[in-house]
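re: ur question from earlier - yeah i can do the single chain one, its not a big deal. heres the input i used so u can compare w yours
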Amino acid sequence: MGRSSTPGEGTRPRASHAGQLGWDDGLYEDGASGAEAAEPGRGDSGDQGGGPEGGPRAARRGGPRGGSRRAGKSRKRRVLRWIAFTLAFLILGTGAAGYLWYEHLNSNLRKGKRSAGNSAAKKTAPNAAGQTPLNLLLIGSDSRNSKENLKLGGSKSSVGGIPLADVQMLLHVSADRKNASVISIPRDTRVDIPACKNPDTGKTYPASNGIINETLRGGPGCTLDTWEKLTGVYIDHWMMVDFAGVVSMADAVGGADVCVKQDVYDVPKPGVPGGSYLKMKAGTHKIQGEDALKWLRTRHAFESDIGRSKAQHMYLNSVLRELKSQNAFTDTGRLMNLAETATKALQVSEEISSVKKLFDLGMQLKNVPLDKMNMLTMPRIADPQDPDAHVLPKPGAADKLWALLRDDQSLDPKDRAKAKKKAATAGPKAGAPASLGITVVNGTGGDGQAPATGRAAEVRDLLKNKGFTEADTTTDPGSARTTEVTYPRSAGAQGRSDALSVAKALSLPTSAVKKTPDGAGLTVTVGADWRTGAEAPKTDDDSDPLEGTESANGAKTDDCMDVYWPYRKP
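and the output i got, formated as tokens:
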């Protein structure tokens, strides 16, 4: 007998809605299907007449008060239990898989101590919104202590040796996350290296004056300590990658655009051993994998380590543009792929040694506009001890750069001019000089030298002579690279106005005025820059630290590298 489109007719009626048992046939544990339920005799009455309580419909229900109605309810409860069990299984299974994947990524990460024991810089005070800047040290190791790294460069004789930190960059993201900077220090820079203890070998290295790429002898934490000693900038974390890590990360990103003005082939030359073997036609190319590593390692063809830094900045800016164009900061699939690669490629300081913390770290860059991302190489001069091979930080210019980072100021002079103008026009009138209680602190040992004896009392007397009769000294030690005037956050706009009036009286720049957490009142900390004399050191508050050094802006897409003539491919 054929099926009918009318419910209740034929051998097995078609279900017109879920309540008529057509949607879940076969789910019942007792095997009763809709057709079986419709058989005569299954209800209390065998009458299959067409009356209101009879016929196939009534039989299918088991009659008006039949046991089949209770059985149907029981069956439905079993259906619901089955569905709930299935959903729970899927949810728990998915959650477990996610947890296992998360733990898998965490287990990939290699971690180490943030510092090798001589971290001395102090954190920048929070801004009005309670935000603090982020400083991350990026280290490129030339380690050949693995088959993968040895294959990508170097000789077997280098296996087992202490790696060199040939690439060192500081990523600074402003407290409000509106601008960011990347500062490179050339690998051949001579600096003071603090005493460091290698966490892996336990060997202790005494303080010395040497080349900055040697600092990995005490582990990445020693490199961080050296940067802090040089710059006075508190560095939150470090992140290190080797040759193989660069290749895998470059592949995960999917490539980045770089440009050379002439054909290039970076190979050994007479008297100049080594080379990256970068081979490229003039023009713009998208590189990844081993080609990206060759680009980042090229030094001779770009004339010097300074040229290599410029090429590295070009590549990093291109990577950031690529990631933003891919929506990689919001695309879950892309993030998972990058996370898998990054956790295998990177070694990190222990405070960021989890996937979540690395993810949160990456999100700090999400909203920074590309035109507010500046990269530059440290201003420098030739090292008198070895002028052909080594450099020193340029006095004045490098100090200015470090001060801007410490004070969380933009490297763009236009941004600084706007901030200065806004600060000058805002706020109430400063209190009368004689009404201001000021504490003067001797912080002249901030550069590592012994503090200048009696310096706090000398500056106190200068203030008294200018009408700040309530100025006094304290025996509490201080430390500052540059002289600063601080006021407590709770003092608000009035506190800033008072501090600005003190700075003006001492001929200090407005950048010397800083807000600190509550606890201390209006304070002048005499820094290492003002060890003697009645006049504060002159500074050009609006000078451009990018001037006179290699720099690149994240929004600029037409940068192209000059190739040193011996390496131009004929």
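Confidence is low (pLDDT under 50) at residues 1-64, 94-102. not sure if urs matches, ping me
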